[in-house]
Amino acid sequence: MNEVPIVVHRASGTGGRRVTVRGRIMGLAHSDDHLVEFLRQAGLPDAWELLDDPTWVEWQGGPAHEYGADG
């Protein structure tokens, strides 16, 4: 089974979405800018191009690019 390497988990009650890359927790993203920074730290320099690619990123528990409490 192929597993998507990047998972953006459902938003927390206070806002933000946990991000994992290949099973490693990168942090809590509150925006696409935060998400891209986590992906760059994981060695993915062209992260902006990956955000809407379902073979790379799985958005769980809500729409893509929405981070919860503050939008």
Description of the structure:
The protein has one domain. Helices cover 20% and strands 28% of the residues. It is built from two helices and four strands; from the N terminus they run E-E-E-H-H-E. It has helices spanning 32-41, 47-50; strands at residues 6-11, 17-21, 24-29, 57-59. The chain has a four-stranded mixed beta sheet, with helices on one face. A hairpin with a 2-residue loop joins strand 2 (17-21) and strand 3.
Annotate the secondary structure layout.
Layout: E1 6-11, E2 17-21, E3 24-29, H1 32-41, H2 47-50, E4 57-59
Parallel strand pairs: 1-4
Antiparallel strand pairs: 1-2, 2-3
What tags apply to this protein structure?
2 helices, globular, four-stranded mixed beta sheet, 4 strands, alpha+beta, 71 residues
Give the overall form.
globular
Strand order of the largest sheet: 3-2-1-4
User: What number of domains?
Assistant: 1
On the 0 to 100 scale, the average pLDDT is 93
Taken in chain order, the helices and strands follow as EEEHHE
Contiguous uncertain segments of 5+ residues: none
N-to-C terminal Cα separation, in Å? Answer: 33 Å
Radius of gyration, taken over Cα atoms and rounded to an integer in Å: 11 Å
Tell me the number of strands. 4
Characterize the largest beta sheet: strand count, sense, and whether it forms a barrel.
4 strands, mixed
Strand content: 25-35%
Structural class label: alpha+beta
> What is the helix tally?
2
The amount of helix comes to: 10-25%
- Please state the oligomeric state of the protein chains shown: single chain
